[in-house]
Amino acid sequence: MSSMEEVMIHSSSFLLPSIPADKASAYAIVVLNQNLPRFTPLLWEHAKLRLCADGGANRIYDELPLFFPHEDALLIRNRYKPDVIKGDMDSIRPDVLNFYVSLGTKVIDESHDQDTTDLDKCILFIRDSTLNQESCRLQILATGALGGRFDHEAGNLNVLYRYPDTRIILLSDDCLIQLLPKTHRHEIRVQPSLQGPHCGLIPIGAPSAKTTTTGLQWDLNNTEMRFGGLVSTSNMVKGEKITVESDSDLLWTISIKKQDSTRP
Amino acid sequence: MNVNTKSLSVSHRLQPAMEVMSHSSSFLLPAGETSAKRYALIVLNQNIPCFTPLLWEHAKLRLCADGGANRIYDELPLFFPREDALLIRNRYKPDVIKGDMDSIRPDVLRFYLSLGTKVIDESHDQDTTDLDKCILFIRDSPLNQESSKLQILATGALGGRFDHEAGNLNVLYRYPDTRITLLSDDCLIQLLPKTHRHEIHIQPSLLGPHCGLIPIGAPSAKTTTTGLQWDLTDTEMRFGGLVSTSNLVKGEKITVESDSDLLWTISIKKQDPNKTLRSG
């Protein structure tokens, strides 16, 4: 393993009630078409840019008011207004579309483009956005990328591999997933009140001849991992810092703790 | 024309006389139609798909992996809202509950024990997943014969924690000689080993049209298909590049040939619940 490799630091500060103001923490949120995780209001509030991928707009419209049962649904819908709705528009309901158009949400109909997924389309929008600067790159948090049809899920995992220079985190109620590119050594900072202990390192796409970790219950030591053999699942984090070094791109996944679901 | 002939002869050179492996999902057919293949059912700890009662009734062997027993206990009666829950629980009794027992509720465990379910506590074994443990039980069962192997259907293997899901996908790769199908309300997943050419038979009333071929463990230099909207012809697939997702089946027979193990996935159509729940 080369000690000349640059270190890539990963933190999940976006899960904290108040987010640090540093540039590294700035993010855009993309909402895809699955049930909203319970921490969506928190992520929404601190986002620099808020997109719904097609039917993700139905989810924001229908499900966000459910997080605030004592408040008027229309007020909540006005408050949680996407900046952009983008995609091939085959899932968004007409009433939902009309509502957000009337609020001034930018709607980008890409139904002519059947070659890229709705998540792809949103990522490209974010990358081209003036809010995404060389000096201050936006990381991308996506909810609703997991579950449902497995080919959709696999396509969304592939998005992580196809944009290795963009920090993209897939989030569900149960876990988060991020790519650890082989080009870097990785330091993962865990928030123990919010994350873990369950975790895994998954060699999706290609086997790994040698992976080495620190900070896990079952650390790897130049260990081979591959589908058909060993894959690090049902592992556990031991502390607040995990390091990973590998000859292959890996997916890192860690569980998200069930929280008290009061509003942020 | 010349290009087609050329790619055909290249394929034949690469895989001279490969055996055909045939796949069908007859286990999803409504009651009254015979299922060609005998199967065992494993229920893992996620929401039960709506066709679970159908799968349960025609299974040769019924296992719950640890907390899967909670799901059978809690959720099966919900499919029969007009019937007494206790009657349903008695009717849908697992043959075996196996696993490390850290998820099953004590009341659920006691209930099935009193009904005679065999409970195998493997909490000492932390090296294998609950799904592994159940597969090993099925493989060793006298119902699983050389002459007539049981295929395995597993519900609840997808969703929830991604490391669990990845571990369950890895199970397909680690038992390539056993036919294992992972099922959810939305889709099914099966391994297509590179050692065979594959013929997949679709029941269009039950499956599709959405499908995909996923090179999860390793890239594929050459995959060739027929029967898909976007067929592959000696096409390379890999994570970071092309993966066949949001594809569509065109007819009732798909063929796949690849130099790499692939996961095949196809969507399951939403059914009329009344149609699938009646037993024969």
From TrEMBL, chain A:
<dbReference type="InterPro" id="IPR006282">
    <property type="entry name" value="Thi_PPkinase"/>
</dbReference>
<keyword id="KW-0547">Nucleotide-binding</keyword>
<dbReference type="InterPro" id="IPR007373">
    <property type="entry name" value="Thiamin_PyroPKinase_B1-bd"/>
</dbReference>
<comment type="similarity">
    <text>Belongs to the thiamine pyrophosphokinase family.</text>
</comment>
<keyword id="KW-0418">Kinase</keyword>
<dbReference type="Pfam" id="PF04263">
    <property type="entry name" value="TPK_catalytic"/>
</dbReference>
<dbReference type="InterPro" id="IPR036371">
    <property type="entry name" value="TPK_B1-bd_sf"/>
</dbReference>
<dbReference type="InterPro" id="IPR016966">
    <property type="entry name" value="Thiamin_pyrophosphokinase_euk"/>
</dbReference>
<dbReference type="Pfam" id="PF04265">
    <property type="entry name" value="TPK_B1_binding"/>
</dbReference>
<protein>
    <recommendedName>
        <fullName>Thiamine pyrophosphokinase</fullName>
        <ecNumber>2.7.6.2</ecNumber>
    </recommendedName>
</protein>
<dbReference type="InterPro" id="IPR007371">
    <property type="entry name" value="TPK_catalytic"/>
</dbReference>
<dbReference type="InterPro" id="IPR036759">
    <property type="entry name" value="TPK_catalytic_sf"/>
</dbReference>
<comment type="function">
    <text>Catalyzes the phosphorylation of thiamine to thiamine pyrophosphate (TPP). TPP is an active cofactor for enzymes involved in glycolysis and energy production. Plant leaves require high levels of TPP for photosynthesis and carbohydrate metabolism.</text>
</comment>
<keyword id="KW-0067">ATP-binding</keyword>
<feature type="domain" description="Thiamin pyrophosphokinase thiamin-binding">
    <location>
        <begin position="184"/>
        <end position="250"/>
    </location>
</feature>
<comment type="pathway">
    <text>Cofactor biosynthesis; thiamine diphosphate biosynthesis; thiamine diphosphate from thiamine: step 1/1.</text>
</comment>
<keyword id="KW-0808">Transferase</keyword>
